[in-house]
Amino acid sequence: MPEVKYQDLPFEEAIAFFRQKLNLPTATWTDIWQAMHTRAFVVAGAIKADLLQDLRAAVEQAIAEGTTLATFRDAFDEAVAKYGWIYVGGRNWRSRLIFETNIRTAYAAGRWQQMTDPDLLKLRPYLLYRHGDSRYPRPQHLAWDGLVLPADDPWWKTHYPPNGWGCKCRVFSLSKRELKAMGKSGPDRAPDNGSYQWADKNTGQTHTVPTGIDPGWAYNVGEKTDWTPDVSKYPKRLGDYLSRELEDLS
């Protein structure tokens, strides 16, 4: 199958996914958890609304127009200088993390919407997991390479990629004919690789995470959620800001 590069964007589903997010200032990356990210644009430590909006605009340009990491870094540097933002990590690492995380999740969400379209599912009812071309591959992701499951298998609710920071794994839809061409008489059985416990140092809360998945990534970015932030739990100024954000998106 041909490699799809993120610079091949845009496509409507990925753009729509990103544009329906609201800006949510946060102090740490665990301030919102898993599927909440499908509704909120966050950058850990970006608590100024204007800073967050400038970063969002640069990310949206990349998703909608296919601009490069270099272009995003120019906008990142401008925002840092403009607002005096002191962020965690080196400039190259942090800018790449923001850029690639948002690009990959938007792409994955858009692909999920395409692959689970009812009309397409009639022709291509299976999904194939493919390991990405990572320099340091995760052993569990490699083990899932070639796994074929029905599109409605519950496994995809927690294992649809990306499955961690920097994860480049992809999913492709398959027809029954393509499944047979792979030498399979039917779909595989969803693997049960167990789980592990991860403690959030900021809150002290412990989460159960599937083996092979990074903390905070055990969700399907393409599945819609009804979650919205409870504005009453935020300080008045931030609560008022979030209320305006929600009104603009409604």
From TrEMBL:
One Pfam family named in its UniProt record: Phage_Mu_F
Residue ranges of every copy of the Phage head morphogenesis domain listed in the record: 54-171
Compositionally biased spans, kind Polar residues: 194-209
Region spans: Disordered: 182-215
InterPro entries given in the database record: Phage_head_morphogenesis_dom (IPR006528)
Compositional bias segments (type: Basic and acidic residues): 182-191
Protein name per its UniProtKB record: Phage protein
Lineage: Bacteria, Pseudomonadati, Thermodesulfobacteriota, Desulfobacteria, Desulfobacterales
Gene expressing this chain: gpF_2
